[in-house]
Please model this.
Amino acid sequence: MKTYLDLSELGMSFTTEHGVFEALTGVNLKIEKGEFISLIGHSGCGKSTVLNLVAGLLEPSQGGIILDGREVDGPGPERAMVFQNHALLPWLSVHQNVELAVRRRVMGREEVAEQVHYFLSLVQMEHASHKMPHEISGGMKQRVGIARALSLSPKVLLMDEPFGALDALTRAHLQDALMAIQAELGNTVIMITHDVDEAVLLSDRIIMMTNGPAATVGEILAVNLPRPRDRVALADDPAYHKLRQQVLRFLYEKQRKVTQLKTATGGVIRRTA
Ligand SMILES: Nc1ncnc2c1ncn2[C@@H]1O[C@H](COP(=O)(O)OP(=O)(O)OP(=O)(O)O)[C@@H](O)[C@H]1O
Ligand SMILES: [Mg+2]
Model:
């Protein structure tokens, strides 16, 4: 298959008051059109940085990103982001936040209203459509953020822990909705998650990132479970549990290494140059 999104020798250093901090180095990843990719790894290992680079919100210090044959050199409408700490426009209501996104694609009044209705009901937020962002909870804001990103119908959907702040039932509902939408529209998705079950359920491949010094891609796990996937059926599937174990083992191994490194350096992991 042809590479659609190509992250090549990607590196990111931040200049801070303590010096240059090398957050990422040598990230290589080739993604096919329509693939669902999860990024998993310990806090601070550079997952959001990878997503921000693909979104074009950060400029890489080394290497580059090619999307559909063109170099990423800034944000673009074909890439939509669901942020880790939601980012709604505070002066617009829930309805208006989604409407603004919908209007990028459709113009007719009725169609706009129909689509806003569709995406808000998908995330079960219709009842609060008139409310302002400061009047709704964190999980509700997150759901509106998801509705907004989906309503852009982007070729590449970038999601930074999109379901982290949600209760288990809402989370399961949105995971299923996301799988159904992706199957229908064929978007390419990169999602960050800390939830191993979520990663296995949704992904075609799980990218497991190593942390410090200078994070990079550790192991890549292909999830060859047939689609459509059903969470209840998978609970009894040995292949599902094997994949889950593989991810957990990777995470525990990495945690042990970091703890050892911290002990050896007196609690400090130096990455400054
Ligand atoms: N603008 C910045 N300036 C300096 N350092 C930064 C900046 N952004 C991120 N970092 C550092 O880069 C590293 C990676 O951060 P990043 O936010 O990508 O981690 P993450 O894997 O998304 O973590 P989490 O799971 O906690 O969200 C961290 O050590 C962080 O402190
Ligand atoms: Mg993050």
